[in-house]
Amino acid sequence: MSKPTLTFGYSTLATRLENIQLPDLATNPNWDVLVTVQSGTDLPPTVEQLLHSPIGDRVTTKAFSGRGVTLLRNQVIQHAGGKYLIFADDDIVFNERGLIEALNYLEANQDVALLLGQAEDEDGNLRKSYPKSVSRLTKLNSAKAATYEMIVRVSAIRDSGVLFDERFGAGADTTYLGDEYIFIADLVSANLRCDFVPVVLAVHPKDSSGSGWGTSRDRKARALIFDRVFRGNRSLPYLARIAFGLRKLGRGLSLMQFISFVFKR
Fold this sequence. Notes:
Elements: E1 6-13, E2 31-38, H1 47-50, E3 59-64, H2 69-79, E4 84-88, E5 93-94, H3 96-108, E6 112-120, E7 135-136, E8 150-153, H4 154-160, H5 179-189, E9 193-203, H6 216-229, H7 236-246, H8 255-262
Parallel strand pairs: 1-2, 1-4, 2-3, 6-9
Antiparallel strand pairs: 4-8, 5-9, 6-8, 7-9
Helix pairs in contact: 6-7, 6-8
């Protein structure tokens, strides 16, 4: 069998396996699926739970104990069979036309290690504001990235040695956000080219773990992300929090909350 062009790398909990909606593999013979699943406990998922995982000739499921989505993302990177890999959650529906457009862009730009695209909500609206044209990603413009918007060139990522920071992301106690931004920032630090391309890759529900600002827990988690992205520099994390927080003032962030965010309170 020829090597798949694209691997869909799902990461989820055992209790949510039945939510996965697979892409159309029947009409896309060079696509495959890798499902990585955690129990959320110290024990591995049960056989009964794994029976809810999708099945098929080009569908593989790998099970793990514990919790933490970035652990699963890293397993996806290590085990993906395709030339390209798109990360997926259990509540994603992919846009086939957009995926093909993105793959064509990657084929035409062989030095691009990561492509960041767009996502829509259930009503067909873009989930957030995106640039209007192709642009290079930096540590200053990629803080809103979501994993299901990211396609990577597997060989480039593996060769770089860059993985998701497993101290961040869903499942972490304090820093349960920001794993996507940190991943892109680490690729940028490794001098890998990462591009934003205005093409819709997926549909995702409006509400997500990245939409909350209302509690001190949310603000502190977000604040610590900038310490990690700009590690080794004493002032840049504060400047980045000021710049990012100013964009949220009056839109979910009060003045006092803004000050708390800047100083990680």
